[in-house]
Specification:
This protein is mostly helical. It is 68% helix and 4% strand. The chain contains 31 helices and four strands. The chain binds one DNA strand through helix 1, helix 3, helix 5, helix 7 and helix 9. This is Pentatricopeptide repeat-containing protein At4g15720.
Length: 586
DNA sequence: ATAGGGTTAG
């Protein structure tokens, strides 16, 4: 007779205990008590226990509990699914979702939101679309959270227009939905639309912008090289009281650097009271991009002194900075220190960065030896050997170019570009017959290369320049301006590879490549003709911001006494997702 | 009653 209230009180006690429990020993103890009292058969109590383990990131006991539950419900499934997302295992989350569909428990809005998030993390468009279908079947297509997660998922899969379609279909929107949409645009290289949506947000929503939305807006300004918009966003950050936020500060540091104002980057960075690894890395990248390798190194050492652990991105940033400032010995030292001092194994990207530096500075044999010593998969191998291939072309080292191109072709990636670069190597070395037979082989295999391109934004218009194509608007004016600039640069002692070479006595094939490498200078020349100030030059990934280019820009800026904002589009989104094409690969 | 969505550096 008395057992029922007693049982009830025990259950309440267990639940209260588990709700506030943040200690594994205590959780295990409570688990044992629940087991003893037979409450593991109770779905509610066990769900609390599962959630407690998930809060402590212990998925193994959570899964075991779930597995042994007589009647898991939708909460049991959803909890465990989000638990696996929290420990970085979205695959298992989706597996659970599929298992759930085999049984009788029906998914609800929580389950869908979680499953969609897993697809977002994995950039799994196919899975995401499937779940979107189920969302409509089950009638959750009007749920705010489900829709926001769909917007985010489509954004992360680079399907921004689908994201927009979901966004437009939403009746009520909150800050999170707006953030998802803005982020989707910002991360897909559609910064203008990101800013447009942000304007709409300010117009339609009374709510203040929070740190999430501001970080994304700043990111959009950065990718557009829009300094003024960036400063406006910075103003909003200060007004809304988010200037102490680590994430926002990192975005600002990055934005100012990409807009050419490293002084502001430094100022923002120095105001962060306890910067974690990310603001430090942003600042190291910023310094590196501006050719301040020594500053990058100082920042890195300062970070170590303050006990902040660098991660693989930080090391990549330092190596990149050394590479771009010609600090060869330092770069090798940092590469070695990764495993020796910091207990981290360098990955393919770190090695590729160093191989690139050795190659560009003419240490071809060392670069080759290092490249050979690295274990890589196909994708990594294509990048690594492609880097060496370009370097050997630059320095006319045919034997290494042949070996490198062989490896690129073996890795079965972007064969076209490998062919073209090798062909150009032959041309530059004067081995016309080899070049010719290679070109023939390419034609036989139906391989052709997409032309490289660069572009310049002037006010609201974008001017695009394709490699080898001088037929654009005011082309002859641009060319004569270019020659004029080159003459002035030479007069003042500029010794980089010159653009004029491009137009004389070079075989057609080789010209395509060389014009490709220098088309940003065409863009620059064009910009100087058209507008006096604030020209934004965007350089695609394949048109590396090598030391030469950087020097050239400095010279041009000096000669013309004009501010030139140089923007290196390093994070080309397709590249991040491994969907690169010829154009952005090299 | 327990479970869900958005931000930063390469």
């Amino acid at each position: 007779m008395n057992s029922l209230p007693f049982t009830f009180r025990t259950k309440i006690y267990f639940i209260k205990t588990l709700q506030n429990c943040n200690d594994l020993v205590f959780a295990t103890l409570t688990h044992a008590k629940i087991l003893k009292s037979g409450f593991l058969n109770d779905t509610f109590t066990t769900n609390y226990l599962i959630n407690c383990y998930i809060r402590l990131q212990k998925t193994a006991p959570a899964f075991q509990l779930f597995d042994e539950m007589p009647e898991p419900n939708v909460v049991s499934y959803s909890s465990l699914m989000s638990g696996y997302i929290n420990v970085g295992k979205p695959q298992i989350c989706l597996w659970l979702f599929r298992e759930m569909q085999k049984g009788t428990v029906l998914p609800n809005e929580f389950t869908f939101a979680t499953a969609i998030k897993a697809c977002s993390i994995l950039a799994n468009l196919k899975g995401g679309k499937q779940i979107h279908g189920h969302v409509e079947i089950f009638g959750y297509q009007f749920n705010l959270v489900v829709c926001s997660s769909l917007v985010d998922m489509y954004g992360k899969c680079n399907e921004v227009d689908l994201a927009r379609r979901v966004f437009d279909s939403m009746e009520g929107k909150n800050v999170v939905s707006w953030t998802s949409m803005i982020t989707a645009y910002a991360q897909s290289g559609r910064g203008h639309e990101a800013l447009e949506v942000f304007r709409e947000f300010n117009w339609l929503v009374r709510e203040h912008a929070n740190q999430f939305i501001l970080a994304s807006v700043i990111n959009a300004c950065a990718s557009l090289g829009k300094l003024i918009s960036g400063k406006v966003a910075h103003g909003a950050v200060i007004r809304c009281g988010h200037h102490l936020d680590d994430v926002v500060a990192s975005a600002l540091v990055d934005m100012y650097a990409k807009c050419g104002c490293i002084v502001y980057s430094d100022r923002v960075f120095r105001r962060v009271s306890n910067p974690c690894v990310i603001p430090y890395t942003s600042m190291i990248v910023a310094a590196g991009k501006h050719g301040l390798g020594k500053l990058s190194i100082e920042l890195f050492e300062e970070m170590i002194d303050r006990g902040i652990r660098p991660n693989n991105v930080t090391f990549l940033a330092v190596l990149h900075a050394c590479s771009h400032s010609g600090l060869v010995d330092e770069s090798l030292e940092y590469l070695n220190s990764m495993s020796r001092k910091h207990g981290m194994e360098p990955d393919a990207k770190h090695y590729t960065c160093v191989v690139d530096m050795l190659g560009r500075t003419g240490h071809l044999d060392e670069a080759y030896q290092l490249a050979k010593s690295i274990k890589v998969n196909n994708d990594e191998g294509a990048v690594l050997w492609g880097t060496l291939l370009s370097a050997s072309r630059l320095h006319g080292r045919v034997e290494i170019a042949v070996e490198a191109s062989k490896r690129v072709i073996e890795s079965n990636q972007q064969v076209a570009s490998a062919y073209v670069t090798l062909s150009n190597t032959y041309v530059l070395a004067g081995e016309w017959e080899n070049a010719h037979s290679l070109r023939t082989k390419m034609k036989q295999n139906g391989v052709c290369k997409e032309p490289g391109c660069s572009w310049v934004e002037i006010k609201d218009s974008t001017y695009v320049f394709y490699a080898g194509d001088v037929s654009f608007e005011r082309g002859s004016e641009v060319l004569s301006m270019l020659r004029e600039l080159e003459r002035k640069m030479k007069e003042r002692g500029y010794k980089g590879r010159t653009t004029g070479l491009v137009f004389v006595d070079v075989e057609e094939e080789a010209m395509e490549e060389i014009v490709g490498l220098h088309s940003e200078k065409l863009a620059l020349a064009f910009g100087l003709i058209s507008i006096p100030n604030g020209v934004t030059i965007r350089i695609m990934k394949n048109l590396r911001m090598c030391r030469d280019c950087h020097e050239a820009f400095k010279w041009i800026s000096e000669i013309t006494e004009r501010d030139i904002v140089v923007r290196d589009v390093n994070r080309f989104h397709h590249f991040d997702k491994g969907l690169c094409t010829c154009r952005d690969f090299w």
